[in-house]
Design a protein that fits this description.
The complex is a heterodimer. Chain A is of the alpha/beta class. Chain A is 32% helix and 18% strand. Chain B has 11 helices and 9 strands. In chain B, the strands form 2 sheets. A 7-stranded mixed beta sheet of chain B has the order 2-3-1-4-5-9-8, with helices on both faces. Chain B has a two-stranded antiparallel sheet with strand order 6-7. The radius of gyration of chain B is 19 Å and the shape is globular. By secondary structure, chain B is α/β, with parallel strands linked by helices. The longest helix of chain B is centred in the last third of the chain and has 24 residues, at 275-298. The chains are: A alpha/beta, B alpha/beta. The interface between A and B is medium-sized, with 32 and 38 residues.
Chain lengths: 338, 307
């Protein structure tokens, strides 16, 4: 494995590995065929290699998920691609009422091996309908599992884990990550040691500063925010000598707070950051679980950081004021220790 | 669709099996409405009174492993395939022996390669996926999906038809056009026609106007074989009637419209074909359903939980 592999290359390799390993996997989506290989090149090389298991479709998100559901129902392992995560709203019925409900609504467990890939997030200037982070809209659907791409996790393990789960999964992929380098060994941002905590194919990445005992703060960030979270934590240490450990989970929902409960209880101060606007959010779900597990140990309310309560503007300078930045995370962290 | 008054068409007598299958659905649905009226059923149900001959006609044309997708009005589809009134009634009443543990109820049944859901139009793209599975694995199987005239209001229908034709999938769409969506007549719901919609995608189309099961099978057998072996999707539109309400007591049609529908009921037509034999089977099936209902309603409630 090359040290300088980009996250998008790693994800593309994961798709190649999974499709090579399982003859019953399909990749279905818009413009996914070679030589184009998808709007973000993540499916590059798949149609040349796997032929009729890579299906390019009309602009029909509902049917993409419907066909994926039909394939899953008949024992296959489809991976559906939404060109932009924003378009998943057009497939909401198929995901919520068919993919997820088919697992249990017929009175017995019926496995649905189905992964929906969603490029999400802003910072690319694509504007209000191509920049959203729709994770929150899929929280709390029985048997629907949510995951997020990170610069630390190996996507072959994550993708295999999702596809073997037997429950439909949505994989949210911050599109800015695709061109960033993966972190595997050595220090992250010259300061943080990367380890994984928790069992199974979906461990949580932990970034901590060597030689520091218990950090004063815990920062929980899904993969898309990992870079901004690490940058904020680094600045906090270098400028203010405040140590903050960053945790990056792979599984967003159902969320297993157990690996975080102990470090959060010891630090007593925790911040949860996400790209969605406030209101019914993933951060609120995590905060609720932290209150339940760590109530006696918390020294301050759980701090949430969201994007602004706003559509995501197209113009760079306007978008910058809406999306979460390392500066906005940093100021939230400083307020938390004050 | 305008329902015009006409004498019951002459129908050729059925063999015992088909006749009993028709009557099984008829008396099952009647029993459900009786049980509702007696306060013995919870929730809601959608009976297919008047439409029973549609799945009974199709049943021998479909292979055991063909995937059949049904909808909210699916009791006839299920009973024509499985002849299992006890399992279905137990499912609807949440009692032991329920085919889906009482979780699915009237609208959500999954057994073998038969599945129903309660969302209009949702199963068309799903059926296209199942059809793709059959084609790719070179199995001589098709996916059949029952929809109504009202289902054509859903975009998923068009997305799926387009793809089925583009990809040459063995998909059979059976339209039970009873002329009414809950309480809204087709005239207020649908511009153009079902035929025009199928033709717009280059999808084959066949219209069935008779209740004569022999004739229906003769017309459809070669068409369905083309779906199965040549992977040509097909829309079959049955011009049919809904005798009962949409669900329980919500029939807002004028009495004369319901009466005109009744005049087109297969029940009188098949009775006229062979009254003595018909009455004998009618009596037998009615008794069977009475016994099934009495038995099922005595059973303990399902314990719940998903096995």
């Amino acid at each position: 494995m090359k040290r300088n592999e980009r996250v998008g290359e790693n994800l593309n390799r994961a798709l190649h590995d999974v499709m090579a390993a399982h003859d019953d996997t399909f990749l279905i989506g818009e413009d996914v065929l070679d030589p184009y290989g998808g709007a973000f090149n993540i499916t590059k090389g798949l149609s040349d290699r796997f032929g009729d298991r890579v299906l390019t479709t009309p602009i029909s998100e509902n049917a993409i998920l419907g066909i994926a559901n039909g394939l899953a129902l008949t024992g296959n392992k489809p991976i559906a691609e939404m060109m932009f995560g924003d378009f998943i709203t057009l497939a909401f019925d198929q995901i919520v009422n068919f993919s997820a409900k088919s697992v249990a609504m017929y009175g017995r467990q019926h496995p649905m091996h189905l992964v929906v890939r969603c490029p999400v997030g802003g910072r690319r200037g694509y504007g209000p309908t191509h920049s959203q982070s729709p994770q929150k809209h899929f929280l709390g659907v029985p048997d629907l599992h949510l995951f997020e791409l990170s610069p630390f996790h190996d996507n072959t393990a994550v993708l295999n884990g999702m596809i073997e789960l037997g429950k439909p999964s949505i994989f949210f992929e911050d599109k800015v990550l695709y061109t960033e380098r993966r972190h595997q060994e050595g220090l992250v941002a010259d300061l943080f040691t990367l380890e994984f905590v928790g069992e199974g194919p979906f461990p949580t990445a932990r970034l901590s500063i060597d030689g520091i005992g218990d950090p004063e703060l815990v920062l929980i960030a899904p993969g898309g925010l990992a870079g901004r979270a690490v940058e904020a934590a680094r600045e906090l240490f270098l400028s203010h000598e405040i140590a903050c450990a960053v945790y990056v989970p792979s599984a967003l929902y159902p969320f297993d707070v157990s690996v975080l409960a102990d470090p959060v209880a010891r630090a007593g101060r925790v911040c949860v950051v996400e790209d969605a606007p406030p209101g019914g959010s993933w951060g609120a779900e995590v905060a609720h679980q932290l209150y339940s597990h760590c109530w006696q140990s918390l020294r301050a309310p759980v701090r949430l950081v969201h994007s602004a309560d706003s559509v995501i503007p197209t113009a760079l300078h306007l978008e910058r004021d809406v999306v979460v930045s390392s500066r906005s995370v940093g100021s939230a962290l400083r307020e938390l220790v004050r | 669709m305008t329902i015009t008054a006409q004498a019951p068409p002459e129908l050729r007598a059925l063999d015992d099996e088909d006749l009993e299958s028709l009557l099984l659905v008829r008396h099952f649905e009647r029993k459900l409405l009786d049980l509702f009226a007696a306060g013995k059923l919870n929730g809601t149900t959608h009976t297919c009174l008047g439409q029973e001959y549609v799945p009974v006609s199709l049943n021998p044309l479909l292979a055991e492993d063909d995937f059949v997708f049904s909808n909210h009005r699916g009791h006839g589809h299920y009973l024509a395939r499985f002849a299992d009134p006890a399992g279905l009634l137990a499912e609807i009443t949440g009692r032991e022996g329920a085919v889906c543990g009482g979780v699915g109820g009237s609208q959500h049944i999954f057994r073998g390669s038969y599945l129903s859901t309660g969302i209009q139009g949702e199963s068309l793209p799903v059926a296209a996926g199942a059809a793709l599975h059959f084609k790719r694995n070179e199995l001589p199987l098709l996916a059949a999906v029952y929809i109504g005239d009202g289902t054509w209001g859903e975009g998923s229908v068009y997305e799926a038809l387009n793809i089925a034709q583009l990809w040459e999938l063995p998909l059979l769409v059976v339209v039970e056009n009873n002329g009414i969506s809950q309480t809204t007549p087709s005239a207020a719901n649908m511009a153009g026609t079902v035929r025009g919609r199928a033709e717009a995608f280059g999808v084959g189309y066949h219209r069935v106007t008779t209740h004569d099961i022999h004739r229906i099978r003769a017309e459809l057998a070669p068409e369905i074989e083309r779906v199965r072996h040549q992977h040509q999707p097909l829309v079959v539109e049955f011009e049919t009637v809904r005798l009962g309400p949409h669900s329980k007591g919500d029939d807002t049609r004028p009495a004369e419209v319901v009466e005109r529908a009744r005049q087109r009921d297969w029940y009188g037509g098949y009775r006229a074909a062979d009254p003595e034999r018909f009455d004998r089977h009618d009596h037998k099936v009615r008794e069977l359903i009475d016994l099934v209902a009495a038995d099922v309603l005595e059973r303990p409630l399902v314990s719940g939980g998903v096995a």
